[in-house]
Design brief:
43 residues; mainly alpha; 2 helices; 84% helix
Amino acid sequence: MHQARLRRQNIRQIPGSDADDVRIINETDSIRLQAINVIQRFL
């Protein structure tokens, strides 16, 4: 999970990256976090 956070920060620091790409990446990360939270509830 820490690696995902670092990867997200690195993506934001890339100059000239499209806002749409960042938005899609953020949506994917939030969906992944929701899935992790649901899984942890059942463990």
